[in-house]
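Tokenised fold entry reproduced for everyone:
>
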Amino acid sequence: MGFQAACCFVLLLCTGGSLSKPTLRKERVVHPDPPLSDQLHEDNQSFQYDHEAFLGKEEATTFDQLTPEESKEKLGKIVDRIDDNKDGYVTTEELKNWIKRVQKRYIYENVAKVWRDYDVNKDNKISWEEYKQATYGYYLENPEEFQDATDQHSFKKMLPRDERRFKTADLDGDSAATREEFTAFLHPEEFEHMKDIVVLETLEDIDKNEDGFVDQDEYIADMFSHEEGGPEPDWVITEREQFSDFRDINKDGKLDKEEIRHWILPQDYDHAQAEARHLVYESDVDKDQKLTKDEILENWNMFVGSQATNYGEDLTKNHDEL
């Protein structure tokens, strides 16, 4: 999702106001978070999994080039950022949120690239008016050019939809988005408080008869444009069975919002939560289920790498090979 709407705007204008339906399968499911690292999680052999989970793969490589002293110094600064409420402790929840943010770094980088295009007055916030003018200004000034646009992704329909999404992302209700709020606006599928909007927008996209549900024909039509008289591919027949057997949980022949949520936002194992619990358990000396900066720095080589820890791992590997 995220920039999907913006892409549709461009395509809509370039094609003279009409979007052809896809002939290939459209993917609606928001895929669960991938594993935090490609490495095996074997602390008795290496902390590389923990390093990549805690820092991200690229940053972990950077730490590998540092001395132990440099690694500890940088880790101390990271701990200060993880401690959201500044109470001097890092909880499992704060650590989980940090790991999730690190793993989604590309999203924040994406937002950083477009930030200046919208933050016109340079107050480090993007107001709804700034976003509306940047995105819909031409439409608002020249509405007569869009009167014949009937596609669901026309500016006329997307404007109130975007405003509704913006207000949901704007947690403090000041009609101006911080970087975190703007990230939630552009990438709602990544934020728990935006999940209802993801479900609602999916329903609105697919529900052609506007009865508040998605029936089987609407479900299939969203994935496949059926040629008159032509046979349905095997995967479409399989999707009809999926709809009846698994998507339609209450067997009433249609999907409500909760069933759509089960379909597009499947529950999965929370890798970040598991890693956060692991790091706290392994570093929590006084067993109060939260970490001080000293506890983290005492166990620094589990959180971050350095030339020294890698050298030690290399010795272990070389010894095992002998």
Q: What stands out?
A: Residues 98 and 239 are 37 Å apart (CA to CA).
